[in-house]
Amino acid sequence: MTETLLTVEELAVEFVGHKSTVHAVNGVNLSVNAGEIVGIVGESGCGKSTAVKGILGLLQPPGKVTGGLAEFAGHGDLLAMKHKNLRKIRGANIGYVAQNPFGSMNPIFSIEQQFRNILRAHDELSSKKLARERSLEMLTNVGIAGPARVLDGYAHQLSGGMAQRVVIAMAMLLEPDLIIADEPTTGLDVTVQRQILDLLRDKVVDSRKGILLVTHDLGVIAQYCDRVVVMYAGKVVESGSVDTVFSDPAHPYTAALLGAIPRPGHELTRLRGSVPDLRVVPVECAFRQRCAHAFDACSVSPHLRETQPRHLMACHLPEGVGHGAS
Amino acid sequence: MTNNKVLVPPSRKAGWNQYFHFGTLVAKRLAFFIVAIFGVLSVSFLLVALAPGDPARVIAGSLATAEQVDAIRADLGLDQPIPVRYVSYLSGVFTGDLGESYYSKQPVITEIMDRLPSTLELVFLSVAVAIVIGVTLGTIGGYFRGRWPESASRGFASVLQAIPDFFFGLLLILIFFFYLDIAPAPSGQLDILITPPDQVTGFVPIDALIAGDTEAFTNALSHLVLPVLTLGLVYAGYFAKITRSSLAEAMQSQQVQFARASGLSEWKTLSYALVQTRSSILTYAGIIFASLFGGAAIVETIFSWNGLGQWALDAILRLDIPVIQGFVLVAGVITLLVYTFLDILVAYLDPRINYAE
Amino acid sequence: MPNKATRKSSQLRDFVQMHKVASAGAFFIVVLISVSLFAPLPFDPEMPNPGVGISSPSASHWFGTDITGGDVFSRTIAAAWIDLSLALAGTLLSLLIGVPLGLATSVKRRWSDNLVRGMDAFQAFPLLILALVLVSLSGNKLYMVVVAIALINIPRYMRLIRSEVLSLRESRFMEASHAVGVPLPRNLRKHVLPNVMGIITAQTTLTMANAIVVIATLSFLGIGVVPPTPSWGSMIRSGSSNMISGEWWVAIFPGLFILLCVLIFNQLSDAISDFNTRTTR
To answer: What was the pLDDT predicted at C185?
Structure first.
């Protein structure tokens, strides 16, 4: 029986400016079950990072969540709960790994201090000795030999890959059930990328956790994720298992994305136009202007519906659009 | 298939390497310090020697005859060529002889040592108060960015920065001494009727404590309040401004985001952001301390504080050249000391410099 | 067809719209100077009136009178153009010397680094004291006040310009422009100068604020602008002994005017910096 860790419905995020409001996220629906890796993919600016930050309540003004719910197993709606309850969940039940590992760590405090602060924030292990033991254990767990040296040192002494491992160790310190990783490998060397992703995957497989992985890299999705959520202009346009979506994409955008992957012998599909202006609340389908299959019904924004078992997509075309030979 | 590749941290050379790097920084600063002191000496001499105007004439007064003025000039050694005066000045400094005041005839060095503690006490406490008030004000403004506390903090800090310190001192005297009758009269470091304690350190409150004279002690403290508040509040504005802008930026950083995402409390998160502003605040503290050293002169005068600044001010108005030179020298030395000390302190506190590979 | 004149005026309009408070302040300064220079004052600012003696604010003397019977209001307003124009002169001198010096020291890195370090050491001095020495030793000539203001503020301009130009020179677009073969002087003129102008303007208003305080401090000490010429600083001085016995109006009004002018220039500086960052992106 797969346990659902996170369910997000109709998440909406706005950035209120002086003259206009940007509707950055406008209908995100997804779920993460225990033991699986769900990937959110979309081009830069489609709102995937914003959505994920919105779930955790990490948005800073002028951004704020304006609708939807995020049900976290056994704890209720993250978007509706009081700050002190949300704070307890962060770190302890949901871990977060961001893109730039050096951005996440404080350059002035030692690594050990930062680990201890996390433990103390959740009232765990107040003894310095025990905290250190647990931290060392965690560092070894993420594949660092000589953890004592790292623990006693500072962030700037680490390489990119090491730093991200340390951040993952911090995120997993309290053994959260769900880890949200927002582009955790962008900017790292390709070999290091694989190591980090392998590490994350191991944790899920080993202990029935779930990972919500945000990335713009389709290759990463294909190799590491069980299910995928495709976002465009602030909405989820398609979601399902990686196998089905990649071999038989239903939404025109997904098809275009996949068609844009260079393959020998195939022409690149071109996608005309550009992303719509998010300052305007979309009434019609956001993809309409660029879609080769647009027709009358597309003047109303489509909702997500199930075309095949557990394969959802938001398009008025009855069966979506086929991809053809893969 | 798991890839359990295990990573080893980059090897560090023998542990003392990190101290070596910090040590070179200290050495460089000290070398610069010595060179700069020499520069200060030279400039303080040149400044007065080359400034327009004829001190002998001013001292003699407008009714003096030419012979009298010449006599004064010769007596003060002002008729010697500049290089000769320069050398005698330098050699004097190295033997601790800074000359004598034209007016009091006392050795300049003695007058300096008498007054130095008073000014140090005033400036040090003022900077401390300025930091406490300013950083608090700035933190409020930086944390609540975009909301009303920020505007309030900004407004308050602007007004504080815009008030000339001597005017503010007068204002405080008016309000707290005249109208509210809480503060003592601006009659210096102690009430006129109280006997000052024996000089041990030169700092009046401390000497009073040492002598066990509680009345003098409390009196000295009460006289400190208004001048320290004057300078402290006016300069709090600068600290508020710099804290607010650094903090506002730090609160938007990814570090703060990760701290929140890890479940740290808002207070802890704020401390993560504040610790990043530490270097700027310290550097600023040094600059303000150094500039207040001479800059407190007018406030000292208003409160009859009898510190170095007031002494120098009187000397300037009387063209008491050895005193002016002595003051410029002391001020320059103190400034350099403070800058050098703070440079080293900031480097020490920043692990990126202290523990550079 | 938009030309330079219309672009400048539309920039001004944008600025006023974005920063209403600061612009109002600037307008106030202009009004103050004009009134001070041209408008007839109720009483002669330099003529004492011993018969009246010191009196608190009233219908005929809005700001009261000082110990010589002089009308505080007239003296305060009359002092405005003196103090402000001196401040302006000092600011202009700082600009005229500081900007070219700043540009000159940003051309070649090596030797100018040492010069800058010398400047830093120079700033180790209590500059106000230096100013005092200069002005009093010269026998209170007004032009020395201007020179003193310049001495205090020139290092700031140099540092500012130098750091801005150096960072601009090492930026990508300069690299690109140079790579395409644009000669250096034109590079400087078309790319560096516009960016630097904004910073210079912001710093100029700050210098004005500083200059006002320096002038007031000097005249408070009896140096620079001396009685009977009205100056805010000397008015505070003469009013300070009155303050302690409760006759606050003699010193408070000039002080408030100083505070107001400094505040306005500080706000203007913030507004200009803000405007710069918003319009150069």
So the answer is: 64
Q: Which of A88, A84, A54, A33 is nearest to A211 (CA)?
A: A33
Residue A35, both tokens: 């033991």
Whole-angstrom distance, CA of residue B103 vs CA of residue A25: 79
pLDDT tens for chain A, 326 residues long, are: 568 888 888 898 988 877 788 888 888 888 898 888 999 998 887 888 899 999 998 888 788 888 889 889 888 888 888 888 888 889 889 999 988 888 889 888 999 999 999 998 888 767 888 888 989 999 998 888 888 988 998 888 888 888 999 999 999 888 899 999 999 888 788 888 888 888 888 887 777 889 999 988 888 899 999 999 999 888 888 888 888 888 888 888 888 888 777 777 777 777 777 777 777 777 877 777 777 777 777 777 777 777 777 788 887 777 666 544 33
Amino acid, res. A266: H
Query: Residue B250: enclosing H or E segment and its boundaries?
Result: helix B214-251
Contacts C121 to B, Cβ<8 Å: 36, 39-40, 336
Ramachandran area for residue C140 (φ above 0: left; ψ -120 to 50: alpha; else beta): left
Taking CA atoms, A16 is separated from A13, A21, B149, in Å, by 10, 4, 20
Q: Which long-range contacts link B135-138 to residues 24+ away (Cβ below 8 Å)?
A: B135/B239, B135/B240, B135/B243, B135/B281, B137/B236, B137/B239, B137/B240, B137/B243, B137/B244, B138/B239, B138/B240, B138/B241, B138/B242, B138/B243, B138/B244, B138/B247
Tokens linked to C172: 């990508």
Structural domains in chain A, sorted by start: 4-225 (3.40.50.300), 231-325 (no CATH)
Whether residues A87 and B258 touch (CB distance < 8 A) is answered with no
Chains linked to C by 3 or more Cβ pairs within 8 Å: B
Cα→Cα distances B171→A134, B164, B165, C12, Å = 59, 11, 10, 38
Amino acid at B352: R
The helix (run of H) or strand (run of E) holding residue A152 is: helix A147-152
Distances (CA, A) of A38 to A211, A299, A318, C88: 6, 31, 26, 66
| Chain B neighbors of A159, CB-CB under 8 A | 10
**Cβ neighbours, 10 Å, residue A50:** 24
Among B55, B159, B316, beta carbon nearest to C263? B159
**Would you mind telling me the total number of residues written for chain B in this entry?**
357
Tell me what the mean pLDDT of segment C42-56 comes to: 71
What Rg value do the Cα atoms of chain C yield, rounded? Answer: 22
Which residue bears the tokens 């009859």?
Answer: B304
Chain C hits for B335, CB-CB cut-off 8 Å, are 124-126
Q: What 3-state DSSP class applies to A318?
A: coil
pTM over 0.90: no
d(CA B269, CA A227): 34
Q: Which of B262, B272, B346 to mutate to test the interface with A (most CBs of A within 10 A)?
A: B262
Cis status, amide bond into C254, omega within 30 of 0: no
Q: How confident is the model at residue C156 (pLDDT cuts 50, 70, 90)?
A: confident
How far off is chain B from A62, nearest CA to CA, in Å? Answer: 9
Q: Is the CB of B317 less than 8 angstroms away from the CB of C266?
A: no
Q: pLDDT tens across B245-264, in order?
A: 889 888 888 899 999 999 89
Q: How far apart are CA A18 and CA A279, in angstroms?
A: 12
- The residues, any chain, with a CB within 8 Å of residue C63's CB and separated by 6 or more, are C57, C71, C72, C73, C76, C249, C253
Report d(CA B115, CA A245) in Å as an integer.
83
Q: How many CB atoms lie within 10 A of CB A190?
A: 7
Q: Do A103 and B264 count as a contact with CB atoms less than 8 A apart? A: no
**Mean pLDDT, chain B, as a whole number?**
81
- Give me the phi and psi of B45, to 5 degrees please: -70, -50
> Which chains reach chain A with 3 or more Cβ–Cβ distances below 8 angstroms?
B
* Separation of alpha carbons B293 and B309, rounded Å: 7
- Cis peptide preceding C228, ω within 30 of 0: yes
